[in-house]
Amino acid sequence: MLAKDGLLKGMSPAATISSMIIVTLFVVGGALLPDAATALFDSISGYLINNFKWYYIAILTLMLLFCVVLAFSRFGSLRLGADDSRPEYGLFSWFAMLFSAGMGIGLVFWAIAEPIYHFQSNPFITEGMTPEAAEVAMRLTFFHWGLHPWAIYVVVGLSLAYFSYRKGLPLTIRSALYPLIGKRMYGWAGHTVDTLAVFGTIFGVATSLGFGVTQINTGLNHLFGMEIGTGSQLILIAVISLIATLSVLSGLGRGVKWLSVANMWLSAAILLFLLCYGPTRYLLLSYVQGLGDYLTHVVGLSTWTDAGKDSQWQSWWTVFYWAWWMSWSPFVGMFIARISKGRTIREFICGVLLVPTLLGLLWLTLFGGTALYLELTHTVTNAAGEAVAAVGQAGIVTAVAEDVTSSLYATLELLDGGVMGTLASILATLLVALYFITSADSGTLVVTTILSLGNEHPPRSQRVLWSMAVAAVAAILMLAGGLKAVQTAAIIAAFPFSFVILIMMWGLYRALHQEVPVTQPVTVDVPVAIEVPVKLPPAS
Q1: Contact, 474 vs 140, CB < 8 A?
Q2: Which of 190, 222, 384, 428 is the most exposed place for a label (fewest CB within 10 A)?
Q3: The pTM is what?
Q4: Do the beta carbons of residue 433 and residue 109 sit within 8 Å?
C-alpha cells in the first residue's frame, strides 16, 4: 500500500504520482504559457459560474443544515476517539489554531476592502454611501465570513476525526468511503478522492498565499518603500516559503502551534489598537447590532441566487467565497481533525462552528466598521470656513479602488498618523507574514498526511517537496494574472472536491447510524416505587 523504499518511501505511490503530475503540468504550463493559462482559467471558471452557481449556493446551505442537525442529534455525545479519551490541547490553544488556519490571511486582506466595496453598491440597496448601505455592507460581509465556511470545515474535519480516532482508519480523505465500499477504499476510488483533496488543498492554500504576498508587498512598500510588482512578490513567496518549510519540519506540536498562538496575540494587539484609537462606542454597537442583523437574514441569504437579475455580483463575491472555502476544506478539515482528538461530536461542532465565527465577525466589525465610520463621518471645510459632510471622501474608498491591499494602511493612518499608527502597520504586516507561514506549513502537513495514508509524521523529504510545490503554484498564479487568476483557480479547484464532500457526508451519516441505530434501546433510570402508609381521617 505504501512504498517501501525509494523517493516515495512511506507514501501512497498512486495518489502521490498522480498529484505530482497534476501540479507539475500546472507549474510547467503556467510558466511557459502564462497567457494561455490565464485564458484557460477564465474559460473554465466562467463556465462553472454561469452553469453551477445554484450548486455552490445549495451545497453550502446543505452542509450548514447537516451540522446543526448533527449537533443536536443523539450522536452528539460520541467522542472522537475512545470513550475515555480526552482532548490533547487546551481550549485556548485549540481556538488559536482553529482561527489561524481557518481564516488568517483572508481576514486581513478583505476585512476593510469588502465592506467598502459593498458600501458603494450591492444588489440590496438603491443608494450607496449611506448609513443604511453601511449596515447592509456589514451584513453581507458577515454572511461571507460567518457560519457557512465553518460548516464546510466541520463536515470534513468531523468525518476525518471520526473515522480515524474512533474507527481506527487512516487519517485521510478516503476513510470516509469505508461505510460505502469497505476495503475497496484502498483501491482506485480512494486514490481518486485523495488526489482531488491534494488538488484542492494546494490551490486553496496557494489562493491565500497569493492574497497574503500582495498584502505583505504593499505593507513593506508603505513602511520601507519596497517596490510593488510581480518580481517583489515572487521574492517574498520564496523567502517566506523557506521559513514555512523550516516550520513544517518541526511538526504540529511545535512550529505550527507556536505560530498559531503568536498570531492570536498579534491579532489581539491590533484589535486593541482599533478599540482604543477607533470609534469605540460605534464599534461595540455595530457588533451587537450586526450579529442580530446577520442572524435575521442568514436564511434568506443562504438560498438567494439572484435568479431575477442574475448579476455578476454574486458570482464574484458569494460564489468565489464558497468555492474558496471548499478548496480550503481538505486543508483546514484535516488540520482541525488532528487537533480535536478526544472531543465529543457536539463539542467539536459547536466549538468549530461558533467560536471562530464570533471572533471573525468581531475582527470584521473592528476593521470594516472603523473604515465605514471614517467614511460616513468625514467632513471638509468649505469656503466659508464651515465643516460640511463629505461622505466617502476620507480616502479609504479611493484606496480600495486603486489597490485593495492599501485600504488597511490607509485606515490605520487615518486613526493615528504618528508612532502608534506606524507600529500598528508593522504589526499588521508581520501578522500577515505569520499567517502566510502558518497556512503554508499547515497545508504542507495536510498534503503529506493524505498522501502517506494518514501518517501524522510523514517523511521529512516529502514535507520539503510539497512545501516547494505549494510555493510554486502560488508563484505561477501570480505570473498568470495576479489576484484574478488566484480567484479563478479557487473556483475551479473547489468544483471536483465538492462531490467528495457530499460523499463524506453520506459516509459519516451511514457510519453514525451503524454505531448508534435508531432502534437501540434507551435505558432510563426510574426510581423504585415506595409504599407509604396513608393515614385516613377519623370517622365523623
Answers
A1: no
A2: 384
A3: 0.87
A4: no
Which residues, in sequence order, are CB contacts of 362 under 8 Å at separation 6+? 271, 287
Q: At what angle do helices 407-415 and 257-277 cross, to 10 degrees?
A: 50
SS3 state at 495: helix
User: Per residue in 348-398, pLDDT tens?
Assistant: 999 999 988 998 999 999 999 999 999 999 887 777 777 777 788 889 999
* Burial category of 41 from C-beta neighbours within 10 Å (exposed 0-12, middle 13-18, buried 19 and up): buried
Residues 6 or more apart from 29 whose CB is under 8 A from it? 36, 37
Q: Which one-letter DSSP state was computed for residue 391?
A: T
Burial class (CB in 10 A: 0-12, 13-18, 19+), 58: middle
Show the 3-state SS of 460-486. HHHHHHHHHHHHHHHHHHHHCCCHHHH
Query: Cβ contacts of residue 155 below 8 Å, gap of 6+?
Result: 63, 66, 67, 329, 333, 501, 504, 505, 508
User: What does the alpha-carbon distance between residue 144 and residue 320 come to, in Å, rounded to a whole number?
Assistant: 10
User: If you ran DSSP here, which 8-state letter would residue 3 be given?
Assistant: B
One-letter amino acid at 243 equals I
3-state DSSP call for residue 529?
A: coil
Closest CA to 254 of 450, 433, 441: 441
pLDDT (tens digit per residue) in 288-317: 999 999 999 999 999 999 888 877 899 889
Q: For 417-450, b where at least 16 C-beta lie within 10 A, e where not — what string?
A: eeeebbebbebbbbbbbbbbbbbbbbbbbbbbbb
CB-CB neighbours of 465 under 10 Å: 18
HEC-encoded secondary structure of 28-90: HHHHHCHHHHHHHHHHHHHHHHHHHHHHHHHHHHHHHHHHHHHHCCCCCCCECCCCCCCCCCC
Dig out the grid coordinates for 418 from the structure: 504618528
Backbone phi, psi, residue 237, to 5°: -60, -45
Q: Which helix (H) or strand (E) covers residue 320, if one does?
A: helix 320-338
Q: Which of 294, 296, 426, 434 is nearest to 364 (CA)?
A: 294
Q: Are 216 and 436 in contact (CB under 8 A)?
A: yes
Phi-psi region at 310: left, alpha or beta (left = phi > 0; alpha = psi -120 to 50): left
What pLDDT shows up at residue 250?
A: 64
Distance, in Å, from the CA atom of 98 to the CA atom of 106, rounded to the nearest integer, reads 14
